[in-house]
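Exercise 7. Given the components listed, write out the predicted structure of the assembled complex. Treat all entries as one system.
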Amino acid sequence: MSDYSQHFVADHVKGLPRSGIRDFFSIVAAMPQAISLGIGEPDFVTPWHIREAAIFALEKGKTSYTDNLGLIRLRREISTYVENNFGISYQPETDVLVAVGVSEALDIALRAVLNPGDKVLYHEPCYVSYSPSIVLAHAQPIAVGTSAEDQFGIDPARVEAAWEPGCKVLMLNFPTNPTGGVTERAKLERLAKFAIEKDLLVISDEIYSELTFEGEHTSIASLPGMQERTIFLHGFSKAFAMTGFRIGYACGPKPLIEAMMKVHQYSMLCAPILSQEAAIEALKNGAPAVAKMKEQYHRRRDLIVRRFNEAGLDCHSPKGSFYAFPSIQSTGLDSLSFCKGLLDQEEVAVVPGTAFGPSGAGFARASFSTSYERIIEATDRIERYVDKLSKNA
Amino acid sequence: MSSVLQLLLEGEHLNTAQMAQVLGLSESEIEAELKRLKAEEVFLGWRPVLNPDRAQENVVRAVIEVKISPERDGGFDRLATRIARFDAVESCFLMSGAYDLLVFASGKDLREVASFVSERLSTVDGVLSTATHFMLRAYKEQGYLLLSPSEREDKPAVSP
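Answer.
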């Protein structure tokens, strides 16, 4: 038999790294006693009324395909929700596509708009799939670093400096996984101006927008002249604690949604109908549950950030998401050694910042999507670990 | 609402040291706040929440619908308070609808609850009628779902 990777695996796939989070957590999986601050999903179970709506839909025999774009009832709810919460109005019949999570929406958006060799600007550290999704669309990723000094918000000047001929798309994700960074309106306005000047399409992933703790979340799509050049991506996984339902959506100009629909149609066909039914219930009646979860995340954030700083790890207060991104530079260790040592010696798992791109070096991602008790215990152990490191230094 | 009270209502069991950590306050501040809430009778006290099937084998609980005649001065209050004072009464509420008071009562066996109803409750002057419903099984107690292990939610430890 031929050497598989030599002969069968496509070149552009061969070069892709595996997710650094996954790799790290295959180690953690063998240590059930460890406290994990690594999980990138809500610790809450999907609110019961949403689960119950899915059960009811199943009982009623809702087991069919749906329209490629998704159930029109759901698209109408999405359109209303986006209008009320983001101030952008989309036609449910033509401008909204329901996808299998934001991950799929992102993938089909990139595949629908990129030609081989096109360039895509995105900010880093960022969610693990961004660069690989661009590569899988045969395009070229161009990372723009963000830094702790800016609390990991994007600096428009760095985007402008990174631009080069051939750039077609600017990808944004605020609040950001893994840093919790947000970008204030004035900077978004400058980015919008730049996007218009350079004729860039913006793909904006707003999955953590409901979990904004300070200030008001602004979508770049809501800025003047931007709706017509933005694909707005959102979903249910984080705010509604519905990760396993795999349901998200894209809103954008009709011709782009039409192009995405073609890719979606031939690959996924449609999102599962049960998840779509659950999503309708989430949008109609989920707001109180979201508010309650957000309140808890907020308190957990304040706790974990304070504890990191007390433990001697500089940590900015993330304005959104459920991730803290402390600097581990004071320990003198690199991200991976710090995280491995912490797991070995104190049985606490956090994700090395480098899993989110080279500019995550010197940081670690700690999810505060877990109980107060576990956060207290984990940060006590981290403090002990950091103390030991400084004594040995 | 005070942040201490909000934290209590979340339902995660924390001691005062942990509450202090979560809220970024000192333990004495937490204790002072709890004291204030108690003094103002906002927070009435601590009670353990037990699984009746496991911990209270010898307890029989009943819900009793009670009709009473209101009085010219004070309406239902005097009678309701009088009924509420019995040790057998766990909770007592004035209700709208077909009856006036809903009384949650308990005893060590059926006979004890029955005798409370027939000898104590229904003989109170002003009580017009009672309808007693015995509880058979608990599925949720004070916000805690009582699930068998196979019904519990189980999450795979996976992260993308």
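Discussion: Chain B has a mean pLDDT of 91. The radius of gyration of chain B is 21 Å.
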